[in-house]
């Protein structure tokens, strides 16, 4: 009897040991991601929060200044201009792309559309295109000269040429159009995947009950797509508030007030003015704004379809 108990205990230990080994090997396999994230993601975030309370030019010793960096940023008119520019571009470029994404996804999911695979690839192509290439092409299209493509088209309708590169609204419209063109296909594919997950039986039952297309969209499509809508609203809001590449290429390193965004503002402070403290303070303020606006958007999107 004692020998049997000893054998069972030994088998249990060996089994536990094998389970532990499997767990360790699993953690080893996934460890590269967490190591790289800790080095290139977590550490810069923590260091940026620390740097927001310091005065540092990137080379000398740091000097603790408390909340002075935040006071300086919040009293800077250019920061508020960059924030207003970012919010305007978010409204002009991000909100329409979500609405058009749902419409395009619904059209691609319809039975009447032929060559669906071709159109899906074509709509998704702008997302995989280089952002720099997109900004250069749109910079040529929105050229302020008379021969600019957009100005030529406007001239057909008797509209005078617009100075897209320098006017207050022209810069914002041009950059917002880039953002819209590049991201509408990405959101369309996400919405399309959500639409294909909706059971056809729901639409068939609604058809039998005499529901119209508007009623199907209102009472079936939108409520079933609510988790996808929340996801796209959340990610699009964060992406819009971090807008950087498009305005940087379009307006250049002049950082003109017509097109400067918050990320461009903190980039200028850090790498042009060598004021890493105010730049980090601006990043922290942007982080708080992103949390607030994302929470509001998720709350509003979560009520859609109820």
Automatic annotation (TrEMBL):
Entry keyword Membrane: yes
Keyword terms, alphabetized: Cell membrane, Membrane, Transmembrane, Transmembrane helix, Transport
GO biological process, one term: transmembrane transport
CDD domains: TM_PBP2 (cd06261)
Membrane topology of the entry: Multi-pass membrane protein
GO cellular component: plasma membrane
InterPro entries: ABC_transporter_permease (IPR051393), MetI-like (IPR000515), MetI-like_sf (IPR035906)
Keyword Phosphoprotein: no
Ranges where the ABC transmembrane type-1 domain occurs: 83-297
Subcellular localization: Cell membrane
Membrane-spanning intervals of the chain: 27-53, 87-109, 121-142, 162-181, 224-244, 279-300
Family statement drawn from the similarity comment of this UniProt entry: Belongs to the binding-protein-dependent transport system permease family.
Protein name according to UniProt: Carbohydrate ABC transporter membrane protein 1, CUT1 family (TC 3.A.1.1.-)
Record organism: Gracilibacillus ureilyticus
